[in-house]
Each structure stands twice: as structure tokens, then as C-alpha cells.
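Example 3.2
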Amino acid sequence: MSKLADTLYPGALTLWLEVSPPRGINSEALLRRLKAVIGHVDAINLTDNALAKVKMSPLAFASILQNRLGLPVVLNLSCRDRNLLALKADLLGAGALNVGAIVALTGDKLAPNDQGDRPQASSVHDVDAIGLLNIIGQLNRGELGEPKPLKFPPALLAGAVANPNRKRLEHEFELLARKVEAGARFVMTQPVFDAETAYQFVERAQALRVGIIMGVLPLKRAAMASYIAAKIRDLAPTRAYLESYQGMTEEQVRMRSVEHCLELMTRLAPQVAGFNIMSGGGPSLAIELALKFSPLRAKLRRSLAPAPAQRTLKGL
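Structure, written as C-alpha cells:
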């Protein structure tokens, strides 16, 4: 099982950096940028055709990352774009490549008039995220759905996603409980912008004995903050904060947002297993935040280091 499994307890402060694979086949420019985070992040969290935009296979890019930079990978896997056979094949491939963890995603349905880069695309959804988590468990046990068991089964660390910003948290936690029952060892959240929202989520999620990787999203410009405030209704409680960026220059927005994220991450450090720094379209600001959090993380780890008996999520 992945070494990442040893960082799923409160205060572990594992740090993941969200990255989208390159749009074409040339990954050199992106690899050069990611060299900066070697030794500062614990894993690269690879998206999977996010927003229905075609990118290089995350499984292929995971192999490139691990071979070229030695960075562990957390692989998002969407049920939207693969049938059952393709899901199992990619999971076995991830196991063979020693991918650190799998995030099981149902994947948004493609809107009729918004097919991204694929005019004739359609959703597959043979299974949803819960079904995918069950499949991961079956493969880990050597069950391929055929009479003959796997001689060399994978040992995949499975996780799920959740949204702490939902108005109906009851429904969100009912769904998360089902994901944990299906085998999720950690939950990676959508971005949070205020500590109170995060605290409410953490308090309830800890009862499920699941590692919490909190999503944080640094803002690049005022237009990005406005778009998030206008389009994502679940962020209504933080709309005033997002709208406060109006009139700022891009440099002012970046500086203030990074400082806000650092403050938020410091406050949440004792309650969560770690953070996933989201890119929001490009990795530059996420890399900047990761590098600024790295020395702070070292100090926080020394102050938060629990006794072995307190690592309640380890070995689940």
C-alpha cells in the first residue's frame, strides 16, 4: 500500500499539488516548472480531463512524472469517460506503475451543447464513484470478475471527493459515508475559503475515520474571484470575501490570496491530514503557494507531531 496511507491522520500535513496533464504530447515545459516543488510536496494530484477538456492521459503522465521527477502521484479517475473494462485496465496499470492513490470520481455529465473538445462525445457512466471504489476493493483482493483470480493483485489506496460548501451537508455526508463504506480511505474536498466552513465539515468527517485532504484554491485575478462567486451557489457564505477582490490588480490579488490561503492552512493544520493546492487553470500560483507553505509546514509539524497512539487514522 502507498506510503501516502501513513499520512492520513490529523496533523500529518501531507501536501498535494493539483496539476492538469499537458494538452499535447510535449510535457517538457510543465516538467521544468514542477521541478521546483521536488522536496516540498508529497504528491502531484493529476486531474482527468477536467471540465471535459481533452488532455494527455493522466496515467501516461503519471509514469512520466514518476520516472523523470521522482514525484509520487495521486490519480483522479473519472467514470464518465471509461467503460467498465477500461476502468479495470487503468486501475491495473496504476497498480503496476505504483501510483500513490486513486481518487474515484463519477464525473460530471456532459451538457448537450457543451461537449468540450469532443463534439460527438457522450458520457459512459457504467458505474459511479461508489461503484468504482467497490471495483478497487475487488482488484485489491485479486478479484477481476473472472473465475481465475489475479496472481499479482494491485494494492491501490482509494479515496473520494466531497464538497464542504454544500448547503445540504446531511446529503453530502450520507454520500460520503457510502463512499467510506465502499472503501475510501481519504476524502479530498472541493476548495474552502473560510475556516468555519472547513471546521464544520471536519467535525463530522472525523466521525467516519477517514483522512481529510482539504482543498485550497489561490486566486489569480479579480475576474476569477467574481466568476467563482457568481457561478458556484454553494459558496454564498464566502461571496463577500470573493467580491472583496474587485478593483485589485492581478499582483494584489495573488499576494492577498496566497496570504489568505497560508493563514487558512495554518488554522486548519491540527484538524486535517493535509491539503490539496488546486491550480485553477494553471500551476504557477499553486506552485508559489506550495513553496511558501513548505517552511511553515516544517514548523507546524514539529509542534503538532502526535504520539503514535494518537494517529487514529493510520492503518485503517
